[in-house]
């Protein structure tokens, strides 16, 4: 049983790492091969590693372009047609969801990581708080409730939104990023232990 757990945990770490390195390696080699003849023609010699610089520059350009209205619309149109291709749709949407969670988590507005009893009393789920809820709900519940988003596994971009009395929420020392990693892996990710707050 221990070997099986080690193997699955290793896969969770190994597959994304190798996939990332492989995709970057393909990108660098593709751009290197594409630019090599032009660089040699202009400079007179090859420049090793030029693909890395061009890839980084391309990422910055795409990021800048996407922040403007025209860029966002162009990306939406591109994704619309891309997501019509069966296999590509699954790969692209999966990678995009994971990327958004891990790279954009600082801008999501989530404040802390908590434990709440969900979906029934006696079982616990990891939740992310986003502050107190609207005043009308506070008044009608007669107690202070907070907004909690409970992500689902393995796609933490979907989940359940619940309002929980503050007294029933257990605060955790996990960061939002650590919580997402744990949820993405289905609990197989081993997070570094932290000292309990005094």
Structure overview:
- Helices cover 55% and strands 15% of the residues.
- It is built from 6 helices and 5 strands.
- Strand 3 and strand 4 form a beta hairpin.
- The model has no long low-confidence stretch (mean pLDDT 76).
- Strands 4-3-2-1-5 form a 5-stranded antiparallel beta sheet.
- It is α+β, with helices and mostly antiparallel strands.
- The chain folds into 2 domains: 81 residues, no CATH class; 77 residues.
Helix and strand topology:
Elements: H1 2-43, H2 50-67, H3 69-82, H4 86-103, E1 113-117, E2 124-132, H5 135-141, E3 145-151, E4 159-165, E5 170-171, H6 176-184
Antiparallel strand pairs: 1-2, 1-5, 2-3, 3-4
Helix pairs in contact: 1-2, 2-3
Q: Care to give the gist of this entry?
A:
The protein is of the alpha+beta class. The chain is built from six helices and five strands.
Count all strands and give the number: 5
Proportion of residues in extended strands: 15-25%
**How helix-rich are the residues, as a percent range?**
40-55%
Unreliable stretches, pLDDT < 50, 5 or more residues?
none
Contiguous helical run count: 6
How many structural domains can be distinguished in the coordinates?
2
Largest sheet report: 5 strands, antiparallel
Query: Cα-atom Rg, whole angstroms?
Result: 22 Å
- Determine the N-to-C terminus distance: 36 Å
Query: What's the mean pLDDT score?
Result: 76
Q: Main traits of this protein?
A:
198 residues; alpha+beta; 2 domains; five-stranded antiparallel sheet; 55% helix
